[in-house]
Each structure stands twice: as C-alpha cells, then as structure tokens.
Amino acid sequence: MKIIVIIPTYNEKANIEKMVPLLEKDILPRIKNHQMGILIADDSSPDGTRGVVEKYMKEYKNLFLLEGNKEGLGAAYARAMRYAIDKLDAYAVIEFDADFQHDPHDLPRLVAAMDESYDYVIGSRYIPGGAIPKEWGLHRKILSKFGGLFARIVWMNFSIHDITSGFKLTKSEYLKKVDLEHLYSKAFAYKLHVLHDVVKMGAKVKEIPIIFYERKEGVSKINKKESFESMFVVLRLKFDDSVRIIKFLFVGGTGFIVQLLAQEGSARLLHFPDSFAVGIGAEMAILSNFLINHFWTFSDTHHIKESSSFWMKLVKFNIASLGSIIIQVAAIWLAELALGPNMHIYGFMVKTRIAILFPAIIFLVIPLNYIIYNKIIWKTQYLKKNLIVEENRVL
Hints:
Blueprint: E1 2-9, H1 13-27, E2 35-42, H2 49-57, E3 63-67, H3 73-86, E4 92-95, H4 107-114, E5 120-124, H5 138-155, E6 168-171, H6 172-175, H7 190-200, E7 205-209, H8 224-268, H9 274-297, H10 310-339, E8 342-345, E9 348-351, H11 352-377, H12 383-394
Helix pairs in contact: 1-2, 5-8, 7-8, 8-9, 9-10, 10-11
C-alpha cells in the first residue's frame, strides 16, 4: 500500500533540512510492506524551503513538492490530501508537522495500527503514555485541554481523547468522502472538520500515545483567533448534525397549528360534533406532519433501496401517531391514579392531565417518534450504507 506523509511548510527551511534525511534514511525504511512517500505542501515560503526540497528530490524519488498560496494550515493540508489521493494514488495519508513537535519515530507506530485494521489512527497526547510539552505555560495547557473537551462535550463523543491532535493517519477511502474543497476552516480547525466527518462515516478509530514536543526551530503559529474559530467550527458541525431534528421539531409545531385550525373549523364552521371535530383535527395534523416530513425532513432517504413505498410509510406513520396518543393517554391515566385529578404547582391548582401532558410529550412522545421515524418509517440508518455502495460502484 502507498502511504503519503504530508508535511505542510511555511518558512521551515531549517527544519526540512533535518527532517527529510532523517525520514528517508532512518524512519521510512523501517516501515515494511508499504510504499512510503513524502509530500511537502509549501505555501511559497520566502526563506528558501522550496530550494531545499528540490535539492532532496534529486536524491529521493519518493519525495514530492506541492506549492500553493499561503491560505492557512487547513488549506495546505486539503490541497495536499487531494493531490496525494488523485495524483499519487495514496492508500492512506499521514498528517505530520515539519517542526519536530511530532516525533518522527512515531510514524511506524501509526502505520502498524493501520495494519491492525484501523481506518483512522490518532497520535494522542491525552491517553496514558502521551504528554504535552513541559515548557508550555498554564495558559497554553488550559487552552489545549479546553479545546478538545469543548468538542467532546458538544459532539457527545467521549471515546476519542485527543480531538485536536494534528498527528493522524487516515485511509483515503474516507478522505475521498470529506468535502475538502469546503472545509469550515482553512486554518488549524480544519482538523476538527475532517475528524468529525471521518468518525461520522463509521471509520474504525484507534489512539496511540505520543509525546508532543516544543518546537526546535521557528515560532508557533497558533493564536487566540484560531481557538475561537475552532469553537465556531465545532458548533457549526453540531448544527449540521442537528438539522434533521430541528426540522422534525418544527414540523411538530406546525402540526399542532394545523390540528387546532382543522378542529375548530370543523366544529364552528361545519358544526360537527366536538368529538368528531377533534378526530378530524388529529388526522389532518397527522397528514400534514407526514407530508412535510416526507418531502422535507427525510427527503434525502427517498433513493435508498430499503425505503418503503409512499403509502406504506403513511400507514406506518398513522400507526406511530396512534401509539403516541396511547402513550399520552396512559401517562395521564397513571398520573391521575397516583396523584389525583388535580395537582398543586407553586401554589396553583392545576389539572393533572394538563400538568403531565407536556412532560409526557417532551420526554416520551417526541424521542420515541423521532426514533420510529428514523429507524422504521424513513430508515435513515441505510443512508450511509447506500452512499458507500454508490461511491464504490462509481469507483
């Protein structure tokens, strides 16, 4: 398998002069059964980095140079990842710093983990055996730790301990599905976007402990602006993940309005009995919710082969809605049985059926309906499977 080590550079002449021969003579030859290559992604460094790379390219045929404009670390990596996959036919790529903060001797360990059938290998500073620079001040340590913790909490992902690590191996089959042209950050936060998407695709992840060192040459390029951008990227990705449930809740709200209008219109304008009007209102809300969910909330599921017919989905939706009504009735019946027909809440007498209705809807009906809609009616669990099948068919 061909594995490309991507090294982004900007004014890294002194580091590249040391790094390339170390990798070529000592580190990469240790990695057996793989064809290793190095891709230097230089952002038009004015210090002569390009000249150093071109000199080494005459000696090492597996060393490549990709130049571009200085747009940020993320832009450089995205450009290099596309080049490694499209032009160099990379089976996997490794993100690696030129400044010796990542220990070159850890490279074989990342590849070894991949050989254990892992798709995404992270060099982790925050698992046993890992460490951050002793030279860092308290502020930098807190900033680094908080950034990862913030992402883990927002994304509810506690299985990965070092979300902000910049030392990773990723199989190309997953990177091909990441929209590298439109990452939310062209700077340090690119790594959060890539990690988020790769993990969401179901990649098998492994963390290996690494010691992260202080730079030996040059100066750190991270700043407070990068930290705030990272938080923005985390929140935006979370919003992207939540779009379906936001739509689902919105549709539920419109359903309540439709039910009220249909119910009152049937009773007051058509003079139907109240019980009949309530039934009409409920069914109109069910139809409204189904149609909007079908053509909006779950519109991306129509093409999957496991999808049921429109009419079968409508039947399932009605059954699910009936189940929701039964849950509400049962919750009210049990509450009145236990608490009586009335409750005292903050000094006010409230009907138990009213007091218990909203908690029952929020904590029981909405979560259950969302699960049923996803898993049984629109079967969103097959989206990823069918996407992979279609992409493999194209490839």
